[in-house]
Amino acid sequence: MHSLIVGCGDTGVRVAARAVAAGDTVTGVVRSAQSAARVRAVGAHALVLDLDHDTLDLPACDRLFYFAPPQREGETDTRMRRVLSAMTGAPRFAVYISTSGVYGDCAGEWVDEDRPVNAESDRAKRRVDAEQQMLEFCSHACVLRAPGIYGPNRLPVQRVLDGTPILNDADGGFSNRIHIDDLAAIAWRVGTRVMPHRVYNASDGHPTGLGIYYDTLSHMLDVESPPRISWAEAEQRFSAMRLSFLRESRRLRNQRLLTDSGYVFSFADFRDGLAASLRAQAPLD
């Protein structure tokens, strides 16, 4: 079996290691020599490409893992369109990691995969387009709608140490998350079998207010919790991108994923995930 991982970054390298261990021939598509070295370190082949501009000479594969984000502008994912057009044929299995942002703001309601998408930003619209492309390309493709991905070196440690304010609990909504190790394990699992459904919420299933997450991390770092600010002040201090995330509130259900895959989370409790991530975190400069 040949696994092709397009966008073989932090999540992709973890999937590549699993695929190599399973006996697959693995090719990871990356943008830089540094990323290529990480791919080779787990026993996979590395292919350095600019997905937007280079001629895409891609190997045939049995499993396609597509983890590359869309380009930064527009309402369609032209990057994915180039990649899929360059494929010699549809693989037996395909996995695309999308985002739960395709649901838009749900006012804190519980959300399962039957809820219609309601992309409110161009960023989310590009993801909806990418999902549709992948589902049309491969009859057994699975879309994983992931929320905030955390893990070693993917924590807001510096913000906490700097005392950067966060939105107060009254103005904030629910946040959802998944540890990167769980996300990679789920991606590999659904990429090795025909799943009963084609879209899954890849979340740990335990949404909380954002303040709880930051307070827990602060406690683990033995520093004061970040100060809270109102929405009006946040609009003056935060970037448009950060505000767009904060405007959306939903609680993701993951029962379909648990039932269909039988997966048992390593870090369903984000507190355990934070503790493990901090132990593995590279020291800050």
UniProtKB/TrEMBL annotation:
SUPFAM superfamilies assigned to the protein according to its UniProt record, in alphabetical order: NAD(P)-binding Rossmann-fold domains
Gene3D superfamilies: NAD(P)-binding Rossmann-like Domain
PANTHER family (alphabetical): NAD(P)-BINDING DOMAIN-CONTAINING PROTEIN-RELATED, PROTEIN YEEZ
Name the record gives this protein: NAD-dependent epimerase/dehydratase
Stored InterPro entries: NAD(P)-bd_dom_sf, NAD(P)-dependent_oxidoreduct
High-level lineage: Bacteria, Pseudomonadati, Pseudomonadota, Gammaproteobacteria, Salinisphaerales
